[in-house]
Design goal:
Distance between the termini: 35 Å
Number of helices: 10
Strand order of the largest sheet: 3-2-1-4-7-6-8-5
Oligomer: single chain
Shape: globular
Radius of gyration: 17 Å
Order of helices and strands: EHEHEHEEHEHEHHEHHH
Low-confidence stretches: none
Mean pLDDT: 91
Strand content: 15-25%
CATH topology: Spore Coat Polysaccharide Biosynthesis Protein SpsA, Chain A
Helix content: 40-55%
Length: 232
């Protein structure tokens, strides 16, 4: 997508690492929504060294592709550093946007500092509805957002808090905590849809208990580097 810097209002930043399976569906949705916003939205994919067809698929699209060091926080910070928009939306590659998502983000950031969407989890397990409900409820109470919920923020605020900390896990929690000190997030009830793959592969209850445990340890001050090895 070829845009002049003066045209861009919203920059959508998507870190990628071996996401070829889900990219065609994501690219189609992004193309449709970007077309609705004319020249006000740019999409930046940041590849962290994919060994599958991810970069080929992105390069064949109308969107921008840059490469950088592996690590979600590193990739998102790199994308933000090259973004032309005054508003930033950080989106996981396995997450699908609701209708008019870009327009909703722009309208929301015109009146607030940052926010996120509600989330639903894609998959057949009935438990996914319960998990998503608790994720959204907990986020409203705590003022903390996760990357699965599509965090969006004014670029000025993102820079002021130092962006995502350079850590292998909980970078979304850390960013949310820093932004929350400035203003509570605006929580949109429109739902992004994220993949339930990791719950299904690892076991739903096992994954829930693991994430609760890791969040507790992080809250207690255990370094993210130590937690990352347990997560993997």
């Amino acid at each position: 997508m070829s845009l002049s810097d003066s045209d861009v209002v919203l920059s959508v930043i998507i870190p990628v690492l071996n996401e070829a399976v889900g990219l065609p569906a994501l690219l189609a949705v992004l193309a449709e929504q970007a077309a609705q916003c004319q020249d006000t939205v740019e999409v930046i994919f940041v590849d962290g060294g994919s060994s599958d067809a991810s970069t080929v698929l992105i390069a064949a699209s109308a969107f921008r592709l840059i490469s950088g060091p592996r690590g979600r926080a590193k990739q998102m910070n790199l994308g933000a550093s090259q973004a032309a928009g005054s508003y930033l939306l950080f989106l996981h590659a396995d997450t699908q946007l609701p209708e008019r998502a870009f327009e909703r983000v722009i309208n929301t950031l015109e009146r607030g500092l940052w926010g996120r969407f509600d989330v639903r989890i894609r998959g057949d397990a009935q438990m996914f509805k319960v998990i998503a409900w608790f994720m959204n409820w907990r986020s409203r109470l705590s003022g903390i957002a996760t990357g699965d919920q599509g965090i969006f923020v004014r670029e000025t605020a993102f820079i002021e808090v130092g962006g995502f900390p350079d850590q292998p896990l909980m970078e979304d929690i850390a960013l949310s905590s820093a932004l929350r000190e400035r203003e509570a997030p605006i929580c949109l009830r429109n739902k992004v849809e994220t993949s339930g793959r990791r719950w299904q592969e690892r076991g739903i209850w096992r994954t829930i208990l693991l994430m609760w445990h890791l969040r507790y340890l992080y809250w207690r001050g255990v370094p993210a580097e130590q937690l990352a090895s347990r997560y993997e």
